[in-house]
Amino acid sequence: MKNLKKRYRYSIILLKELVRTDFKLKYQGSILGYLWSLLRPLLIFLILYIVFTKFLKIGSGIQNYPVYLLLGILLWNYFVEVTSGSVNAIVGKSDLLRKINFPKYVIIFAISISALINLSLTSIVIVVFMYIGHVTVTLQSLWLIPLIIELILISTGVAFFLSTAFVRFRDISYIWEVLIQAAFYATPILYPLGEIPASAAKLLILNPVAQVIQDSRNVLVTKQADNINTIYGGNIYIWLIPTGLTIVTVTLSALYFRNKSRYFAEEA
Amino acid sequence: MSDDVVIKADGIYKDFILPHERVGSVKGIFTGMFKNTRVRKEKQHALKNISFEIKRGEFFGIVGRNGSGKSTLLKILAGIYQPTRGSVMTNGKLVPFIELGVGFNPELTGKDNVYLNGALLGFSSTEVDEMYDEIVGFAELDRFMDQKLKNYSSGMQVRLAFSMAIRSKAEILLLDEVLAVGDADFQRKCFEYFDKIKLENTTIIFISHDMNAVNEYCDRAMLIDNNEIIAIGSTADVTENYLKLFSSNVTKNNSLTSKRWGDEAAAITGVDAKFENNKIKIEAEVIGRTSIESPNIGFRLRDLSGRELIGTNTRLENIKIKKLPLNKKTVVKWEFENFLKQGEYNIDISIIYRHDTVVADWWDGAAVISIKRDHHSPYMIDPVYKTVIKY
Q1: What value does the mean pLDDT of chain B take?
Q2: Nearest CB neighbour to A170, from listed B24, B81, B124
Q3: How many separate domains does chain A show?
């Protein structure tokens, strides 16, 4: 353990400082500062909540729809923050890369951790909403831990791929901008899975992010939230597909990143 | 690798593929696929067959013209670039100091930048806490630490950067052109620091254009030109070779800096220069073509970096030449005791007339004289001293 700490000492020091710098830069010059990381998702949530419950009347059948919706948005936000934030991560640091040799994965980890801190901060709001809505926390809620880990893995995996590919192919940023928009609608964030055709639901839930969101809602908010298990009629092995996808993505992307990172300094 | 050798470069080649040749977008892949003409891959050779060893505690200079490949080499040593071929082995903690302020962010305050830069150099925030006052003190920036870095002058930035860099407990320090900025006082501090770490057996690799600094501080040096090693060895030899790179332009005719001009009313027909018994003898043979009034014939010596050092002419010497005989050779001789340091010097000869307003013939680099001394002085002027010590 001590050896391990020594080996990764530099990476850990660097990681801490990059995360700190990122926060300082992000909220510099804004009056509300850190509060914005809380306010921004809340305001977006508010807009979506009003549109979907008052005008479209989609979530009305679901217990604690506000918490249900907010949880989905926050988890999705994490995914977007990590992936979209990573596209330009390596190229944006090209100046630094040309001056000093350091483990490049730290850059991606820093983004992932910054987003995770944001997620934890905003979770406070969820706790408040849950208290207001009398949502009871059960032992089952502990499932959130592996679910969040899965979300971190899939997000960081995609981030590794995007940041590396962007070094060579600058089209990636535009492609990802469109894809993430499409993915937002292809993920059951706003609508309950029960309201779309069963075949479509079966396909969409295989997306690891969708699976994580629905499972989280299921264990934390309401059993009304369909998860991959209920959609596939109680088949527990079906979980292997999204989790397997996550592991494959993160492994391949990390290898791709590691392979190319030797040349980031001259190509980025 | 023996324990003494801290850096061993073995046959390093580095090629860069020129950026405009690269496929920069996904579209490029598709359009490139259907094109019959193969994508030209024009390689730029940045380094060719570079091999050398540096021993522990050595102060090693790397010199060369702009674009010769010095910085690329330093980046390969630092592990920032990968060599195309060949290998680099390093033995010990290496800290590169490639440019001013690694990772400095203009939007952050000086203080925040210290912590960020410290992290890049491998210091945890508690370690930076401990040495913060020292860093700021050395950089002499106490009053500015809460200001954003973008409001710093470049000299202030490099002072802060240098103050950080010297905290790093490097066993091998790579320095690229750091002394070019900063005022005299800062440069003095740098050299004091060099003296200090030299005693601590730190190995320093130092890229510079300042031949005096290289001569004074480096134990050995290496000259890179056209991406290859031209000379490696004693600093005196290497710096002399470096200066010759520039002089070759002067002595060659028709090159950009070798010049000869005038209205040809008189001409220099021959120049001879000798160095004997620490005496310099210069002979210029001139010839008059048309009759000119009060001609003034002179010479001057320039060192290989072009500095005009000494010279005189007949007017300064109060010698009046009434007329230059037409179409007949006239010889002017100068002889004087040498007090210049060892090296090669260019001799320029001139004939001017009409109260020094018209040039008849002016020949820069008409000859080269090689001055040999029994020692190598870092100073330009090196008279024969008589030193006496009384106990």
Answers
A1: 83
A2: B24
A3: 1
Using CA coordinates, name the residue in chain B closest to A8.
B122
Q: Give per-residue pLDDT as tens, B65-90.
A: 888 888 899 999 989 999 999 999 98
Give the mean pLDDT of chain A: 89
Q: Domain check: are B289 and B167 in the same one?
A: no
| Residue A7 included in any domain | no
Q: Based on the domain organization, do B87 and B156 belong to the same domain?
A: yes
How crowded is residue B335: how many other Cβ atoms within 10 Å of its Cβ? 11
CB-nearest to B112 from A14, A18, A24 is A24
Q: Is A265 on the interface with B (CB under 8 A)?
A: yes
Convert the pLDDT of each residue in A14-64 to its tens digit.
999 999 988 888 877 777 777 887 888 788 888 888 887 788 777 777 888
Q: Are residues B272 and B343 in the same domain?
A: yes
Pairwise CA distance, residues B301 & B307, whole Å: 8
B115 shares contact with chain A (CB less than 8 Å) = yes
CATH number at residue B301: 2.70.50.60
| Predicted confidence (pLDDT) at residue B251 exceeds the cutoff of 70 | no
The question of ipTM being above 0.85 is answered as no
For B95, name the nearest residue in chain A, comparing CA atoms only: A100
Residue B374 to residue A72: CA distance in whole angstroms: 84
Residue B388 lies in a domain: no
> Hey, is the C-beta of B82 within 8 angstroms of any chain A C-beta?
yes
Cβ count near A108 (within 10 Å)? 25
* Position A24 in a domain: yes
The answer to pTM > 0.80 is: no
Which pairing describes strands B358-371 and B260-261: parallel, antiparallel, or unpaired?
A: antiparallel
Q: Which domain holds residue B101?
A: 5-248
Tell whether the torsion through CA atoms of A40, A44, A49 and A50 is positive or negative: positive
